[in-house]
Amino acid sequence: MKGQEWYQATEVAEEYEEKRFSRGGRLIDRREKQAVLDAIGPVEGKRVLEIACGTGRFTVMLAERGADIVGLDISAAMLQQGRHKARNAGVADHLEFMRGDAARLPFPDDHFDTVFAMRFFHLANTPASFLSEMRRVSKDQVFFDTFAGPSTRSLYNWLLPMGSRLYSLEDVQKLLGETGLSLVDSDHDWVLPYGFYRKIPDVVASRIRDMDTAIGDTMIGDQLASVSYWNTSVE
After folding, report:
1. CA dist 214 to 61, 80, 189, 217, Å?
2. What is the pTM of this model?
């Protein structure tokens, strides 16, 4: 995995949400959470696994809605932040955080109704192996996002110390074919890359986001999108 040592550093975990989801980054946080909720639907009573749960943004959100959820991450520092968030939200007794490797999930086959990962596959050196594990432990649904290429994300990648793995539609279709997953639906968004929004104040970001969304709603919107959300089912 790209940036594995960086990601596990305590100082990175402590600053992670402030750096990514403050200012215009709040728009990203809201959109990602809505994408997860739209894909999974009603979660009460569902057994859910979140891969690379990080600081527990989605894990806690779904626990608050009644999911029986496990958040797995390789970073102990990130998990500590997630547990703190769960305690503050009053759901610490309704979820489980585990440290583990997404390439070797410590669960039996078909153990969860839904398995999902956000902000994960852009760092994966061998995405098929990770997706195969997600498919193995899910009996119904696998949901994940990718950064798209070519897009404005391609330009933004040049500025990043680790870069990102970018996926075309053909790349994702190949991945699904290799791992026994069927595409249910997909959504494509964000003409401008995430990094742009994180650098500007809320008010300005909201106005630019309105223009971004308007372009996304046109006939060429999907081709310009820098982020894709993939909802798939187990064959």
Report:
1. 28, 39, 11, 5
2. 0.92
Q: Looking at domain 4-230, what is its CATH homologous superfamily? A: Vaccinia Virus protein VP39 (3.40.50.150)
Tens of pLDDT along 110-121?
A: 999 999 999 999
Q: Beta strands of 38-130 (E only): which ranges?
A: 47-51, 68-73, 95-99, 112-117
Task: Give φ, ψ of 77 to 5 degrees.
Answer: -65, -40
Listed in sequence order, the DSSP H helices in 109-168 are: 127-137, 152-157
Q: Could you report the per-residue pLDDT of 72-119, keeping only the tens digit for each? A: 999 999 999 999 999 999 999 999 999 999 999 999 999 999 999 999
Nearest CA to 182 out of 170, 197, 172, 167 is that of 172
CB 127 within 8 A of CB 121: yes
Dihedral of alpha carbons 121, 127, 132, 133, sign: negative
Q: Using CA atoms, how far apart are residues 166 and 153, in angstroms rounded to an integer?
A: 8
User: Cα 77 from chain centroid?
Assistant: 18
DSSP letter assigned to residue 115: E
Of 67, 124, 117, 153, the residue nearest 231 (C-alpha):
117
The gap between the terminal CA atoms of the chain, to the nearest Å, is 27
pLDDT band of 195, cuts 50, 70, 90: confident
